[in-house]
Amino acid sequence: MCSESSLEVSKQKDFKCYSLTIVRGLVKAFQTLCWIWTLVQYLKVARVESWLGWIFSFGFGSIFLSLPPFERFLAILFAFSLATASIFILNQYFDRKEDRENAFKFNMPVASGRIAPRTALIFSFLLIFFCLVLIVLVYINLLSLFLIYLVFGTAYSAPPLRLKSVPVVDFVVSGIGAGFMPFLMGLELTDKLSPDILSIMLGVVPLILLHCGGHIIQAVGDYEVDRKMGVHTFVVRYGRRNASILAGSMFLLAGFLPFIYSVFGLLSYTHLLMFFALFPLSIPIIKRYTDVLKEPSTKNVVNMQKTATKYGIIGITVMLGYTLLLKMTSF
User: Fold this and answer.
1) In the chain, what are the domains?
2) End-to-end alpha-carbon separation of the chain, Å?
3) What are phi and psi of 111, to 5 degrees?
4) What is the gyration radius of the CA atoms in the chain, in angstroms?
5) With b meaning 16 or more CB within 10 Å and e meaning fewer, what string describes 286-324?
6) 194 with 230: CB under 8 angstroms?
7) What b/e string do you get for 183-214 counting C-beta neighbours within 10 Å, with b at 16 or more?
8) What is the pLDDT of residues 141-177, one digit of tens each?
9) How do residues 247-282 score in pLDDT, each as one tens digit?
């Protein structure tokens, strides 16, 4: 009897230990899932997919005239990503009321409440701090350009300036902030900011036009909410159709500029082969744009943006690879 009783007690202890191990494992798994979920929300609030074009402007500028030291390029690219993410987080902080009314933005981390506005603001400031520290440690010559870049990005959304509410200024600031400034920051990596101003302007103008046009298309998608909330964008002031036509004109001019450069002897005809090769990638985007032109709705704008992202990534990769190859073979 005594041995049976001891055996029963031993089994109960083993069961308790086994149960406790399972509970601890479940708690640890739950904590891991919560950590992963939180990390995903912070990645979503950064909206990396929305600023791939900004990365292209920076990358194109960094190899436009010469090749920078690779380690410096990687470090500054990371700093640029931190700065850009902070700008997009600030935009969500100040636009959270409008985003809650937007059928395609209401589920964003700040607008939905998955990340508290105060938390998002602190996170944005931390990204700015780490960005500037990295710039000072790696390449302080870029500090002034980064500060201007951050001021532009903040002034776009933040009161009292809130430049997104000033017609024309809204898309011009976007073109400068997303096209011109990243390009210059990339150029500064190679210490080539001052010389050859003509070449620099020839390279950056198409980028500015593309980003201006892209901003206008985005504002066409936000038209209903912006008008309801009293945000006086260019699209709200002049109408969705007129804005869509202007954006299309900018895209068209940006596409034709390389051919115009060639006519005036500013670009070798051999480089035009790349643009002809990339043209098929633009066909699906053009089709989506015609849908926006016929019916400038939020749904059609979102479809156009998704298509532009899908095929644009391929085009960006080819252009950067082609430019990089030219620079490497020229040494």
Assistant:
1) 52-330 (1.10.600)
2) 91
3) -60, -35
4) 25
5) eebbebbbeebbbebbbbbbebbeebbeebbeebbeebe
6) no
7) bbbbbbbbebbeeeeeebebbbbbbbbbbbbb
8) 999 999 999 998 999 999 988 999 999 999 999 999 9
9) 999 999 999 999 999 998 888 888 898 889 899 999
Q: What is the pTM of this model?
A: 0.88
Q: Which residue has 């001021």 as its token pair?
A: 151
Distance CA 181, CA 231 (A): 25
Q: What share of the chain is helix, strand, coil (3-state, %, to 5)?
A: 85, 0, 15
Give the separation between CA 301 and CA 224, rounded to whole angstroms: 13
Phi, psi angle pair for 96, to nearest 5°: -60, -35
Cα torsion 108, 225, 173, 252: sign:
positive
Encode pLDDT of 282-293 as tens digits.
Answer: 999 999 999 999
Tokens representing residue 268 in the block: 């070798």
Q: Are 172 and 211 in contact (CB under 8 A)?
A: no
Position 85 pLDDT exceeds 80: yes
Which residues 6+ apart lie within 8 Å of 121 measured at CB? 89, 90, 93
Query: Which amino acid, one-letter code, is at 317?
Result: T
What is the DSSP code string of 263-299?
A: HTTSS-GGGHHHHHHHHHHHHHHHHHHHHHHHS--HH
